[in-house]
Amino acid sequence: MVEPLQQPERRNPLRRTRQPSLPPVGRSRAGMLLTRAAAEGRFALQRCDECGAFCYPAHDVCPGCLSTDLKLTDAPDGGTLVSETVVRVPADVYFRERAPWRIGMVKLDCGPTVIAHLHADCGEAEPVRMSLQLDKAGQAAAFARPAGDTANAADDRQWREMTASPKFRRVLVTNGRSAVGQATAAALVAAGAKVHVGIAEPWKPFEAGKALEACTVVPLDVTDERSVRDLAADIGGKVDILINTGEHTRPGGLIGRHGTATIMDELSQTYLGFVHLAQAFGPAMRARGADGIDSAAAWVNVFSVYALANWAAYGTTSAAEAACVSLSHCLRGELRAGGVRVVNLFTGPLDTEWFQTVPPPKVAPKAVAKAIVSALESGVEEVFVGDVAEDVRQRLEANPKALERDLGA
Amino acid sequence: MAKPASRRTPYDGVVITTPVTIPYQRYSIESAQWWIGRALRALADASGIAARDFDGFCLSSFTVGPDTAIGLTQHFGLSVRWLDTIPLGGASAIAALRRAARAVQAGDCDVVACVAGDTNHVDSFRRTLENFSRFAQDAVYPYGAGGANASFAMIARHYMKRFGVGREDLGRIAVAQRANALNNPHALMKTPLTVEQYMAARPIADPIHLYDCVMPCAGAEAFLVMREETAAAAGLKGAKILASIERHNARIDDVVQNHGGWVADIDDLYAMAGLRPDALDFVQTYDDYPVIVMMQLEDLGFCAKGEGAAFVRAHDLTIGGDFPHNTSGGQLSVGQAGAAGAYLGVTEAIRQVLGSAGPTQVAGARTGLASGFGMINYDRGLSSGAVIVSGDG
Amino acid sequence: MAAPDPLDFAAAIATGALRVVDLTATLTPDFPVIVLPPEFGQAAPVRIREISRYDGRGPGWYWNNITLGEHTGTHFDAPIHWYTGKDLPNNAVDTLPAEHMIAPACVIDCSGEAAADADFLLTRARVEAWEEEHGRIPRGHWVLLRTDWSKRSPRDYANLKEDGAHTPGPDAEVMKWLVEERGILGFGTETIGTDAGQASHFEPPHPAHHFLHGAGRYGLQCLCNLDRLPPTGAILITAPLKILNGSGSPLRVLAVTRP
């Protein structure tokens, strides 16, 4: 039985902020396969191509038939908790600070036995539902939850370590002028967050409207280093989740673009905007990764899926976003020291004016908002939103060259 | 149970001599090399055989890295014609004496110094855990297990539920060993332990409580293996090896470990020794946790699976009792000096059958068993071994 | 007549006999810029990036890199800015005659009308009324339209509505007349452009740009402190940056008047 999470008390200003510590980060090369699965929110294990056996922990060789053809394969997530313990005196700092910590042995329906973190409602000899989660170190960790639904399940203390739930967290949505920004702000309020929404160029007309009713609108122009720093000076110490919804899209390829003014704009809005935000908000977030229930938890980037595969019709926009994807990996490494995760959402064309002439399917801003909340609540790191994004993802894996030809046509 | 005749060559003509212990320290600023070197010197001093005349060297240590046995030959000025490093944790001593005995028996070398030693710096235990094994690194350590405690806690919980074992049953083992340890001047634990204290101890990883755990420390243990005539020429008393077994990664069908690997070879052990369990004068089990002791009592044939609790209730496990067990106090009361923990029961067993155990001596002991268990690679201990030794008292 | 001694001018300023009024708005990142439909290229706002500030990037000195458009902040429009002036000689900021950078100005105070009506338009009649009072506008003078617009908040200053900006400016007739009949050197405003906010709907569109630049004349915009100038008698110092083929330039606009 999980008690519902309570709104955290105000901090005692005389106490030092708890510094982030991380669970053990080391994993074998093969073990990192599971980190990939966890990042994508899949429960996948290695499976032997020859004998079909699943194996765990990560192997290089199948213990059944000595085959080296072990492929990461989605696995049935059912299992039974066969034993458990409450670790009260762990050896390393991260768990010592969080003790008592409950783990158990789960006999998977698909074969292997897994040592897993336990949700409080898991009972011995009872069925459990397994997932691979990214822990604070950003590595895969097996997590067992009860097979059925239980009350306040998401408020479980150990589960919350594996997610970046917006409940009771303070969120900054960077672009309140965009449809995605507005939908995201509203969805986060509904998920229990306190939301700040940034508005650039406040001298331009802006009606906050119903979507932002429960939010605090603040001036934020990501292209302006000073504007970003000024906002960070005000609220940087209490931004637990930052949602970078740049969304600066301009149609057009490269050769016909004629000069660089538009491209500079794109880089300024998209790339430098990201840089300014990271430099202004990153350090405090990294320092606050273990700061209680409303610790800093996540940085979310909303990218076009064409950041991963250039779509010539939006060629320079795609490139600016690709630069941001690269930068996000840098940021991910840097924020990991604080246990703060970087979530990248890749969307297909949005149902906005900038994709007006693009035929459907298009992604409704609300769908992006929903995916953001879901990613935070489930703790994944890579999300593809919409049919087009999923199509691009699959085709990138299947044949990136064919995708390149199609998108360049 | 059926007792097939062993087809294995007996360890005839080989003896184990000169058991030495370098008294343990909770923490040490010295290196593992320092501890191992002291043990080697003690072997030479006690045997009267110069170290340069040891022509075999067998080493076990967790903290000697980056060295292995070869590096230590140069460090210690040894020139040997037989060399081994045995990284089997709690099964290292059994494996060492088996290999050394066969090498000596075959004439590959004459005198093998078997040494296990580890240091314990303030942070070395945690470091050892971090780098223990690949599976542990991938699938145990990131769960806060912090070493063997959590894994053995899950094994213990499962075992206790399955066989109706209570904590107080396991407590009998720990309490009896503490009583034995009070006779051992080298034991780190020097105060009596009652069942009440055992039951009231703070939990570490349920159901493992404080007195279920060994205390990591620094120390070294060693013995020599040689032919009988070599021992006689040096004026050394030796213990004979009646039988020994080892087994690794056994019983893989146990979802949660209920058995050690002994169970696979126990018939062979007694058949080779030509005796039954009740003929033994004492038993030194590997006691990293009392629950593993109880499993050993079953798997080594002193009682049936599931009857371990009844067995310890029915017997007195102290030096003067009807089932003298871990007479030195075992790792639970002496301390666990890394790989030397594997040797502790073996050196004590040698002393017992040679009549040189002093304050922990079991009266009239001639034949006894020592066992080893180690390497919790992922969810279970993989290595196990046992030896039956005899001497003339 | 002997040439006047420039040192007399300097002395007059030093003693306060002449007063210098700064007509320039501070370059800040959040000052509005002209807004075009987003599919067009856009004027860059002011961006100031620190190179170093007595720190590891440069221990003993402070300096910035700045980016901004030619038409950002208080700025000068050269004839080449508009298609009507594209073929004129010396039509860019790097080639225009330096003598034009110091010239007298007439200030027409329409602050009352602009306060009442954001879409206030300066007409020929309004200028003629001003001439009744202050005399005919001489050739080669700047005409500055005072609206007190520079005193507004950034939002009211841009005053963007669904149908575009609503800010005061000249109508087409007065611009043609000022250029052709009065021979003015240029036209200056406090608003974002020399034209009114709704001037794209005029005939011709953007008449200030159309007529001024077509005749080789200049524009000044985003001026402030016009309320501190006399209707006549001030001279303006308006030296744009010497940008190769530049269409305009941010600049410091100074006025010199009697106290």
Automatic annotation (TrEMBL), chain A:
Gene3D superfamilies: 6.10.30.10, NAD(P)-binding Rossmann-like Domain. InterPro entries: ChsH2_C (IPR002878), ChsH2_Znr (IPR022002), NA-bd_OB-fold (IPR012340), NAD(P)-bd_dom_sf (IPR036291), SDR_fam (IPR002347), Thioester_dehydratase-like (IPR052513). Residues 37-70 form the ChsH2 rubredoxin-like zinc ribbon domain. Residues 74-125 form the ChsH2 C-terminal OB-fold domain. Residues 1-29 are annotated as: Disordered. Pfam families: adh_short, OB_ChsH2_C, zf-ChsH2. SUPFAM superfamilies: NAD(P)-binding Rossmann-fold domains, Nucleic acid-binding proteins. This is SDR family NAD(P)-dependent oxidoreductase.
Automatic annotation (TrEMBL), chain B:
Pfam families: Thiolase_C_1 (PF22691). Residues 270-376 form the Thiolase C-terminal domain. InterPro entries: Thiolase-like (IPR016039), Thiolase_C_2 (IPR055140). It comes from the Bacteria. This is Thiolase family protein.
Automatic annotation (TrEMBL), chain C:
This is Cyclase family protein.
